Amino acid sequence: MRRMRPVDCAQCLGGTLIPLAALGTLANILLFFPGAYQIDNNLNLSEEVWYFGGILGCEVLMIFPSVSLLNLKKSDCCEFHGQEDCGKRLKIFSTIISAGTGIIGASYAFVISVVAINRGPKCFVGNNTWKYPFHNGNYLKDRDLWSSCLEPINIVPWNLSLFSTQLIISSIQMLLCSIHVVKSFFAITWEKC
Question: Where does it primarily localize (predicted)?
Fold first, then answer.
């Protein structure tokens, strides 16, 4: 059985990060359009939507590791000060740095999603008032509280499902980038590239 080299593993991880990044961005974009409801004032959207966790964290900062990992095999392993192994190690070390950027981006999206899920959505509660009617995730245990949001219709499941999707995607991205960092660290330290 052929052992998977760090370069092959890196390309596999890089290829997996791209569709996850696209899904994270889509989830963030959909949060701007709560169902079929048209919000007249953008200030009535939840604050966490404007932090762009899916766009910035899951997509923009994930471009660096995905491109770096996909191009790892394509780039030439030139010698570094006359030692080919050193050049390969330097190249793999650079992918560790880019995977670290991915971990930071995914962590950002993860934190934004956790805060948004715990806080709940901003919604119209009557008396010309838009606010956050839920506290400390209490609406997650008691579905009857969802009726306090009069508009947009179904805003609670909409926000909950999209922020949960973003949470899952960012968790997977953190895991994949971490796997690459650990595997590459051992490759640089103990093996020949």
Answer: membrane
Tokens representing 113 are 């999603």
What whole-number distance in Å separates Cα of residue 110 and Cα of residue 118? 12
What is the band of 3 on the pLDDT scale with cuts at 50, 70, 90? low
Cβ neighbours of residue 34 closer than 8 Å, sequence gap 6 or more: 45, 121, 152, 154, 155, 158, 159
124 phi/psi in degrees, rounded to 5: -80, 125
**Residue 19, preceding peptide bond in cis (omega within 30° of 0):** no
pLDDT in tens, 81-96: 455 555 677 778 888 9
The identity of residue 74, as a single letter, is K
What end-to-end distance do the CA atoms of the chain give, in Å?
19
